[in-house]
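Q: I'm building a small set of examples for a reading group on sequence design. Run inverse folding on the following structure and report the sequence directly after it, with nothing in between.
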């Protein structure tokens, strides 16, 4: 009889424990979190739509336990300020160019140099390479920022200027808007132009008022940010390939339940796939609208430009801007 009682008590205790664990897991998963997410692109930009899509996917898959509040168009400040805010934990997330990470991970400067990548295939393989993983690990360990997704591949960057850029010589003396990223500054200077740092949200006005003669940007942003309007001249250089990444404060990420982490990771990548396809699909429509508004498109001969920047890459590597042999490692990706 005593044995039977012990067995029954053991079964009862086991059931209670299982119930408590299940309730605990349910409570952990269902705790609602609100994440503040900033961006710098226009409200009607496809990347902003993708940010909202990420928020919608995360909300649906988490049954409402993840709410992402989206703040586009630099509402939370300039890009570099938002990255700093995510690092400090005063802002949860930031979604924009992966190149901003180069400000905090010196070796990442190599990817911000113009003409580093041969084509989209080369760039996509780089994004999934051990080199990129090393950069993202360093970013997380040293700045406390985790990259949830890097698959938001942008349209190649070209140049809107007050004159056509047909050859390398046409860059001479041009004041070109650049972000506060070393690789951009060095690239523009190597081409013979004058790099001028201006915040992304102030670029249109700088072009309109003649503060700068040119800016470079992804072709879709030429339309959504209206960079084409002041000069109605765009030179197709495709000098830079970059992406948009989803950043989150590491401590904030670790505060989420495992289910929420997995959902957020999946949503970030799903939104990235949607963005990459959607921006390509929309490009022809943007081009048609810019042409209808009188914009001329010039095909640039970039051969000499590519050679000039490659020479600069050698100089920068020797100066210690990034690790020795890193540029060659990227070029060797096939």
């Amino acid at each position: 009889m005593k044995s039977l009682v012990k067995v029954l008590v053991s079964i009862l205790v086991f059931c209670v424990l299982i119930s408590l664990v299940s309730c605990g897991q349910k409570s952990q998963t269902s705790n609602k979190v609100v994440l503040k997410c900033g961006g710098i692109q226009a409200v009607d930009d496809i990347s902003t739509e993708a940010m909202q899509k990420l928020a919608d996917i995360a909300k649906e898959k988490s049954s409402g336990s993840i709410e992402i509040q989206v703040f586009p168009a630099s509402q939370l400040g300039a890009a570099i300020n938002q990255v700093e805010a995510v690092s400090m934990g005063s802002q949860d997330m930031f979604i924009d160019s992966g190149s901003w990470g180069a400000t905090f991970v010196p070796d990442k400067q190599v990817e911000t140099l113009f003409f580093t990548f041969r084509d989209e295939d080369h760039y996509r393989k780089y994004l999934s390479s051990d080199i990129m993983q090393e950069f993202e690990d360093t970013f997380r360990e040293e700045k406390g920022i985790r990259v949830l997704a890097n698959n938001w591949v942008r349209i190649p960057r070209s140049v809107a200027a007050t004159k056509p850029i047909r050859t390398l010589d046409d860059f001479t003396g041009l004041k070109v808007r650049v972000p506060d990223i070393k690789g951009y500054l060095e690239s523009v200077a190597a081409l013979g132009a004058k790099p001028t740092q201006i915040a992304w949200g102030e670029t249109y006005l700088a072009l309109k008022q003649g503060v700068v003669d040119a800016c470079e940007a992804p072709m879709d942003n030429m339309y959504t940010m209206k960079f084409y309007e002041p000069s109605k001249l765009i030179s197709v250089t495709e000098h830079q390939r970059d992406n948009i990444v989803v950043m989150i404060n590491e401590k904030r990420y670790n505060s989420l339940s495992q289910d929420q982490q997995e959902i957020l990771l999946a949503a970030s990548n799903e939104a990235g796939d949607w963005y990459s396809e959607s921006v390509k699909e929309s490009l022809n429509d943007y081009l048609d609208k810019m042409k209808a508004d009188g914009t001329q498109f010039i095909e640039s001969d970039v051969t000499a430009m590519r050679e000039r920047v490659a020479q600069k890459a050698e100089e920068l590597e020797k100066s210690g801007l990034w690790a020795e042999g890193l540029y060659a490692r990227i070029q060797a990706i096939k």
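The chain is about 50% helix and 20% strand.
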